[in-house]
Amino acid sequence: MALRPTLGQQIDLALRRSIPVALAVLLLFLGLLPWDTHGLGPMNANLVLIPIYYWTLYRPQLMTVWAVATLGLISDFLLGTLLGVNMLTFLVGYRVAVAQRKIFAGAPFIIVWAGFLLMSGVAGLVQWLLATIVREQIDFNLRPALFLYMIGVVAYPPCAYVFAWIQRRSLVRVAQ
Amino acid sequence: MKQRVGSVSIAVAARNWTQRFAFVLLILLSFGIMLVGKADTVVVSRARTLLIDLIAPVMDAASRPIASAKEAANTVQELVALKQENARLAEENKTLLEWQSIGRELQSQNASLRDLLKFTPDPRASYVTAPVIADASSSYVRSLIVLAGQNDGVVKGQAAITGAGLVGRVLEVGKRASRVLLLTDISARVPVVIERTRDQAVLAGNNSDNPELQYLPRDVDIKVGDRIVTSGVGGNFPVGLPVGEVTRVGDGHILVQLYAQLERMEYIRLVDYSLPGILMQDLGIDTSQASDVTSPAMGKLHRAQ
Questions:
Q1: Which residue of B has its CA nearest to A129?
Q2: What mean pLDDT is predicted for residues A118-130?
Q3: A39 in contact with B at a CB cutoff of 8 Å?
Q4: What is the rounded CA–CA span in Å between residue B277 and residue B279?
Q5: Cβ of residue A29 closer than 8 Å to a chain B Cβ
Q6: Which residues in chain A are closer than 8 Å to B171, comparing Cβ atoms?
Q7: C-alpha–C-alpha distance, residues B190 and A129, integer Å
Q8: Phi, psi of B132, deg, nearest 5
Q9: Rounded to an integer, what distance in angstroms lies between the CA atom of residue B272 and that of residue B287?
Q10: pTM summary value
């Protein structure tokens, strides 16, 4: 007969299971801080795509579609964008990651990174399309969007390294 | 027993169905939220300010190391360029002294002319200095969150300025934090005037660092370097607040470089000019209350008359 886990064990497990979403919230807040990017543009929101992509590949049970939608909604509230825009963007990014999970999950790092480029590119395109529809005018100034995209691409390897370390240390026994 | 197995299988089927269609449901929900957000802005705005209030203390604490790092970097830069800066300042001081004497002369002349015309002076401004705690900008929106709200006398529509010039206006006000819409945001529109020619225009944000001038007369004589100041039209901002200078003319676009360095702001001033602007009247806000609010417990905030 299997032993019933104690309350302490249950709390420990719940905390461990919340690590991926907590990391996404942390990155959302980090992106909100008033960094000085020397005129290159703002640097937030899309950093959250990194944990969404990573955990969707390696711990899909811990980065659910509900969590992704909630992250998008919080991002909309904080950034002042029209509610639902980032929610939809993150959901589309999540869907791209889910669709490519079988290809990328066991692949070498460079392929996984390329997968992130694809996913964040699609998400960026959705964001641009939604901004165009909402404002009823085409925004040809793509420099801030490209800068955000580049930030995400450059930030992916160190973030993935930290996530992998956390995964090895804290999420080994947590259900895949 | 059979009944129990049946109810469990229904529950499992329902869960599977939910998981399978959760994505589609949430996509539809996000479109629904967009429609609600477009239609009911008051409720959404309240929800936003509530969330901003909640995160304000966290963002304040987290932004302090960045502010310190910025300050340290500025100090190093200043030390490196100290000699050159000193020479430049000495030169600037000479020019300013000349302007001071001209200013004094004009001031006394102005006073006597106002006396002759029985001119009513502008109401004196009161202001709140607030630290910038978050840069809530993305590719398609440009705004800041500052640590000052209703408790400090901040009112929607107030001008946000730095020592260099206009930055934007207060868009949403929470109890202890507010959102400032920057001049660079695509929805920002400010009535301005070209100081040299006195031609009126509208400064329109375009999500780049250089907003553009719109609705200028066709035959306008505008040059790179022309100063742009607020025109006071609409009554939201007073006349003559420095905004920026023309940095590019051509291709049907006139771009403006703002005086305020939007990315290097650690503190901004939210100014109440007690002007009965269109925005305030439309919202039914009693602007007279703003200047009566006393200073909050936040040590960094200053209020002055």
A1: B140
A2: 88
A3: yes
A4: 5
A5: yes
A6: 80
A7: 27
A8: -80, 120
A9: 8
A10: 0.73
Distance separating alpha carbons of residues B91 and B88, to the nearest angstrom? 5
Task: Identify whether the C-beta of residue A43 lies closer than 8 Å to the C-beta of residue A148.
Answer: yes
For the record, the structure tokens of A130 come out as: 């939604």
Of A38, A83, A131, the CB nearest to B44: A83
Cα separation, A49 vs B114, in Å, equals 61
**B298 is written with which tokens?**
């936040």
| Tally of CA atoms within 13 A in the half-sphere of A169 that contains its CB | 7
Cα–Cα distance measured from residue B242 to residue B230, given in angstroms and rounded to the nearest whole number: 7
Q: What is the pLDDT of residues A31-79, one digit of tens each?
A: 888 776 655 555 565 788 999 999 998 888 888 899 999 999 998 888 8
A-facing residues of B in 56-115 (CB < 8 A) are: 58-59, 62-63, 66-67, 70, 73
Helical residues (DSSP H) of chain A, grouped into ranges: 7-17, 19-32, 49-58, 65-79, 85-99, 101-104, 109-135, 143-170
- Long-range contacts, B276-285 (Cβ 8 Å, 24+): B276/B235, B277/B157, B277/B234, B277/B235, B277/B236, B277/B237, B278/B234, B278/B235, B278/B236, B279/B156, B279/B157, B279/B234, B279/B236, B280/B155, B280/B156, B280/B157, B280/B236, B283/B156, B283/B157, B285/B155, B285/B156, B285/B157
- By three-state DSSP, how is residue A77 classified? helix
Give, for all 305 residues of chain B, the pLDDT tens digit.
455 556 667 776 676 567 668 888 999 999 998 888 877 778 888 888 888 888 888 888 888 887 787 778 878 877 888 888 888 899 999 899 889 888 888 888 888 787 777 766 566 677 888 888 888 777 678 888 999 999 988 988 888 988 888 999 998 899 989 999 999 888 889 999 998 888 889 999 888 888 999 888 877 888 888 999 998 887 778 888 889 999 988 877 889 999 888 877 888 889 887 665 554 444 444 434 333 333 333 333 333 33
Distance from CA of B140 to the nearest CA of A (A): 7
What is residue B168's DSSP assignment? E
Phi, psi of B207, rounded to the nearest 5 degrees? 65, 15
B189 in reach of chain A (CB within 8 A): no
Amino acid letter, B251: D
DSSP codes of every residue in B243-257: EEEEEEEETTEEEEE
Q: Phi and psi at residue B145, in whole multiples of 5°?
A: -115, 130
| Residue with token string 């742009």 | B228
- Closest Cα to residue B132, out of B75, B180, B165? B180
Phi and psi at B159, nearest 5°, equal -75, 140
Residue type, A125: L
